[in-house]
Amino acid sequence: MPASVTVAAGATTAIFTATVSAVTTAQATVLTAQAGGVTESYTISLGAAGPGLTLGSTSVAFGDVTLNMPATQTLLLTSSGTLPLILSAGTVTGAGFSISGVTFPLTLASNASATLDIQFELTASEAVNGAVTLETNTSAGPVTIRLSGTGQAATYEVDLNWNAPTDSAVPVTGYDVYRTVSGSSSYQLLNGSVATDYTDTTVQSGTAYTYYVVSIDAFVNQSAPSNLYSVTIP
Fold it and tell me: What is the pLDDT of residues 56-77, one digit of tens each?
C-alpha cells in the first residue's frame, strides 16, 4: 500500500491501489489512516484463493433395478473455487457399481463442469450400498458420494386374446386356456372359463411355452383347439 495518499483540495475522497498476494487461508488486516490529529481504522478481509468442488448430489440412489439390466445415473462435478480443480483419481466400492465418463486425472478450470456416469448392474437379488471416492486438490481432500441400489429379478407375463367364433350353433359361454412347456405334448388347463383374453403370470424366465384355446358352449361341450401360440420368455 502507498505510504501516503493525497486528497485534493475541496475533495472528500481519494483513490489508491493496494496490491495483494494469494493466501492459502483466510486473512484479515487492519488499515489505519491518519490525517492531522484524526485516526481511523478499517478491517480488510482477504479470502483464500484455492480450488473447490461442488457436487450435484452427495448420494445416488438407484432403487430397484432388474437383474442383468444396467442402470445409469449422472452426477455433475463443478469447479467452484478460484484456482483449477484437479481430480487425481476416482474409486468405487460396492458390488455392481462402476463409473465412466471421466478420465483421471482431470483438471477443471474455475466454473467448469464435468459429468460422471455411475452404473449399477447386479446378477443376483440383493440390496447393495457403495461409494464413489474422488481424490481432489481442495483443502477438504477426498470427497465421497454414497451409492445404493437393489437388484430385482425380472417378472414376466404372457397376454393372450382371441376373437369369439361367429358360426357357433350354440352360444359360447366361455373359454379354456391350455399350456405346455415347449417340447412336451402334455397340456395343462390354466383356468376356469374366461372371456376372450387371459394373462398367464406363472411363466418363468428362460422357458418356452405353447398355448391353445377351446370354447365352451352352454352344454359344456368343447370346440376343437385353436391355432397354437408359442412364446419364449427372455
Answer: 999 999 999 999 999 999 999 9
Indicate whether this model's pTM tops 0.90: no
DSSP structure string for 16-30: --------SS-EEEE
**Contact (Cβ atoms closer than 8 angstroms) between residue 4 and residue 35:** no
- Has residue 44 been placed in a domain? no
pLDDT of residue 234: 85
Q: Are residues 131 and 188 in the same domain?
A: no
**Which residue from 94, 60, 96 is spatially nearest to 77, judged by alpha carbons?**
60
Domain count, the chain: 2
Q: N- to C-terminal Cα distance for the chain?
A: 77
Cell 405346455 belongs to: 180
Tell me, yes or no, whether 145 and 83 share the same domain: yes
Q: What CATH number has the domain bearing residue 189?
A: 2.60.40.10
Asked whether residue 43 is assigned to any structural domain, the reply reads: no
Q: Cell triple for residue 97? A: 457399481
Average confidence (pLDDT) over 146-169: 89
Among 43-47, 181-185, 199-203, the least confident range: 43-47
Same domain, residue pair 145 and 173: no
Residues 6 or more apart whose CB falls under 8 angstroms from that of 204 comprise 156, 233
